Amino acid sequence: MNSASFFRYILLWIILGLLVGLLSGSASAIFLVVLNWATDYRESHIWIITLLPIAGFVIGWSYYRYGEISVKGNNLLLDELYKTEKPIPLRMTPLVLFGTILTHLFGGSAGREGTAVQMGGSLADQLTKYFNLDPGDRRIILIAGVAGGFASVFGTPLAGAIFALEWMLHREIRWKSLFPAIWTALVADWVCATLFGVGHTPYFIDLVPPHTLVNLLWVIPAGIAFGFSGRLFAQSTHFFSHQFSKYITYPPLRPVIGGLLIAAFVYFSDSTTYIGLGIPRIVEAFETPLPWYDWLAKTGLTSFTLGAGFKGGEVTPLFFTGATLGNALATWIPLPLALLAGMGFVGVFSGATNTPMACTVMGMELFGYESGIFLGIACLIAYLFSGKSSIYSSQNLDKKFHLYPGEGISNILRNKSQKKD
Question: What Gene3D superfamilies does this protein's entry cite (predicted)?
Answer without folding.
Answer: Clc chloride channel
